Amino acid sequence: MNLDExxxxxxxxxxxxxxxxxxxxxxxxxxxxxxxxxxxxALERMQHVVPDIVVSSMHLPDMxxxxxxxxxxxxxxxxxxxxxxxxxxxxxxxxxxxxxSGAIAILPKPFRKEELEIALRNTMxxxxxxxxxxxxxxxxxxxxxxxxxDDSQLSRKFVRKSMNxxxxxxxxxxxxxxxxxxxxxxxxxxxxxxxxxxxxIDGLELVEHIRHYSDQPTVPVMMITSEQNQSRLAAIQxxxxxxxxxxxxxxxxxxxxxxQFTTGTDL
Length: 267
Known about the structure:
Domain Response regulatory: 7-124, 145-262
Strand order of the largest sheet: 2-1-3-4-5
Number of domains: 2
Keywords: Phosphoprotein, Two-component regulatory system
Organism: Marinobacterium halophilum
Pfam family, one: Response_reg
InterPro entries: Bact_response_regulator, CheY-like_superfamily, Sig_transdc_resp-reg_receiver
Number of strands: 10
């Protein structure tokens, strides 16, 4: 898949910001770009043509970017569309639903071109791998058993799709740490990917139990979290996680870590 084959919808009320974003998208090779100032007309357009990428601001005249993404994820044809947020918003209540809904990236406003380039490259690789009909040459990953633990169904789905794109088909899901530990009594895993903030048993408690009380104490555990508190992050690290990744999850980073954990080499 080439860049000029992708349809991108840019939703940004500021003419200046919209022009900056569109000009840079064209610089990197994207040609099919449709601009919108509000979410409503963009959603209407999506009912007729499904885009490959939606680039949106957070605060739109008719709704927030969070509301927009929520509506997209509730629509069968749009639930898997790649979403990239560009916003100066820092409030948890706005950004957390974006992180939990499988957004490919959240960029600050104003953004640096290098940041957008990295996000677009990450997006392109994700789209390429998920839409590629050719099997990936990753025979050593074919029989990997991966457990994904997250109370967000959308987050679990994004990680599952990412695993499938990498070439891993054996993916089991758990909605929290308690369910994960029950599953681990019945099955063995090559990798566990867990959220941190979850009900019942959170990610930290899950890692501690795995390392000290389970019969799989050496299994690699990757923690995905939007947590910013340094003391909590230090506690997660001390518990014995193999890696800590930020939400939104960087697809290229995920690919590299999976290969490192399983084969000791990079993709």
